[in-house]
Amino acid sequence: MKRLESSPLPMQPPTYGNLVTILSIDGGGIRGIIPATILEYLESQLQELDGKEARLADYFDVISGTSTGGLVTAMLTAPDENNRPLYAAKDIKPFYLEHCPNIFPQNGRGGFGSLRNSMKAILGPKYDGKYLHKIVRNKLGDTRLHQTLTNVVIPTFDIKNLQPTIFSTFEAKATPVLDARLCDVCISTSAAPTYLPAHYFKIEDEHGNSREFNLIDGGVAANNPVLVAISQVTKQIFHGNPDFFPIKPLDYGRFLVISIGTGSAKIEQKYTSKMASKWGVFGWLLSGGGSGSASTPLLDVFCQASADMVDLHISGVFQSLHSEQNYLRIQDDSLIGDVSSVDISTKENLKELVETGENLLKKPVSRVNLQTGIFETIENGGTNAEALKRFANLLSEERRLREIKSPLTSKSTKPRPLLF
User: Which domain of life does the protein's organism represent (predicted)?
Assistant: First the structure.
């Protein structure tokens, strides 16, 4: 069954449909290549249904991302000169392959080189961030949150106020001093402690109101931002946003959620209590954990803990509502060695990350065990690729239903016929 191709129409609000659709992308530095590969496949399935111009932003009410996921979110939702997404999903992987070696330059990786990198990390950020800042500003320009083609939610953390700062299209439209430039948001949510410098900027509205931001990586608060995205939607429902009527604040059974991780090194078990018991400040900040490459245990612990806690919570909620078929978490917890790093941008490692994403599509759908925290294969769940194909059909049908029911589109367009 294939629908006739038609020119894309603006996404109609959930009030005309059955579902609230959310896409979430974890943080993880260069491991953003993994979700980029997954998203390319998902978008290709939507294009098979609705035509080559279909883009992910045409199907999701909210796209949320932390750190590298925040950058992907901005790329998928920022408008180009034709008011279409700046990047198709297939363009994101080439972007990472081209620019990551310059964002994370590899200045020696053994012996003296590793010692020099460790000393640099002690004295300041491992990378100066100049190339990242330049490329992000060049690509995103002065585009602001309120201009995104669908709602976005991107967490950061304010180091001065010691509290999370959530940037969202919802908040930007309501509060001008939160309507930040997308480039500033991306630089901020990617500013991982010890790796990249914190980011400062200030917003002033037309009435003279202003707000300052002193921000670091959103991963320290919400490396898996799906719960933050759901909370933003719940807040809109609670405050009576007509786009979500008649959905109730806790009507999670009507949520359709795809959450994509950037992989983890759980299976490697590179840290032990025996090792950690001897660590001081430097040990918690710089340790290879026996993997042969320096890592930052403190960040690994914080980011993995927040990501897993969110997945445990969301999985529990959807299972309790008997709507687990509406929640898809795609994650690989079997990364080992360099491929589990956030910044080793050698040609060999980037190639392996692409292969990791491609292999993840072939793996069976898994769900976190609420008792052990380990991902376990779902019986008769098929592969991740098959699950994404099913979700693509759901997303396409939801979009089509909204077009039929919405008075904004039903008068000017006819329902797209089906070809059997």
Answer: Eukaryota
